[in-house]
């Protein structure tokens, strides 16, 4: 019954029979999605506010099913995690993003490429070797690759996270803490984590022009980030006013629809060239 019907944008009520059979159909289709090359990556630009240039991108996974169409990540990534498929798909994402990073480097386009890591990938004991091996085999520059991990993940086992992040960092791979501010924020731990970038969750940016508490949080995070010499990216910046506000609070980079939606690599190259022109 799911066939031929456009996939719903949000997960329907979990208790309905239709939702259950749709989830089953998606799960079934996900088992074949990798082999059938139904996944692809889009890249969302990140602009350095001081320089006024695109300095990085975040790779974002997309799944196009032949009949269901484009299924949103909020719908299929939890399923991949439940099915134990996220590590295999995550490995494909890593390789594909590294290949794209190489192409940009060869074209003289200097971009940091962000790659999302799921908790399952991060907690895998062989992860460090696999990431390093992939970067080397593909020929990407480790310093151009930034792994995005969520703070809740890092906090699950802070001691081993610190060790692992330290090894990645010694290999010159960059680390970003994603969705910062919504999880188990602990400044004490943040200070101990060897990271390069904090990504402020879009929940704090959305109402930044109206909600003083959100401004206070963003100001506090940027102050610490500055002290530690980190890049601070505000996510979900959609308007010029939001941009002005986060800039005034000390944010160094923005990512959001104001600069561009997730897009094809060729469009990133065009945007990069446009912005870099003095
Ligand atoms: P995320 O890592 O927090 O990624 C940012 C999300 O915010 C993306 O949603 C992006 O399209 C969206 N976004 C960016 N700018 C704006 C804006 O100005 N306004 C609004 N309303 N939204 C904006 P997307 O692509 O749907 O991805 C959703 C989530 O799926 C990601 O959240 C991430 O947690 C996960 N995800 C995406 N790709 C991957 C991947 O390759 N691996 C893993 N493990 N997870 C991924
Ligand atoms: Ca992310
Ligand atoms: Ca995020
Ligand atoms: Ca998120």
Question: Which properties best describe this structure?
Answer:
278 residues, alpha/beta, 8-stranded mixed β-barrel, 9 strands, 20% strand, globular, disordered N terminus, binds ligand C2E, binds calcium ion, Response regulator receiver modulated diguanylate cyclase/phosphodiesterase
Account of the protein in words:
There is one protein chain. The protein is an alpha/beta fold and 278 residues long. The protein has helices at residues 17-33, 73-83, 86-106, 119-123, 127-138, 151-156, 158-170, 187-192, 202-206, 212-228, 240-248, 265-276, and strands at 39-48, 53-65, 69-71, 112-116, 145-150, 174-180, 197-200, 231-235, 253-255. Strands 1-2-4-5-6-7-8-9 form an 8-stranded mixed β-barrel, surrounded by 5 helices. Helix 1 packs across helix 2 (73-83) and helix 3 (86-106) packs parallel to helix 5. The longest helix has 21 residues, at 86-106. 37% of the residues are buried. Residues 44, 60-61, 72-74, 77, 90, 93, 116, 118, 178-179, 202, 235-238, 256-257, 262 line the site of ligand C2E. The site of one calcium ion (CA) has 4 residues, from loops.
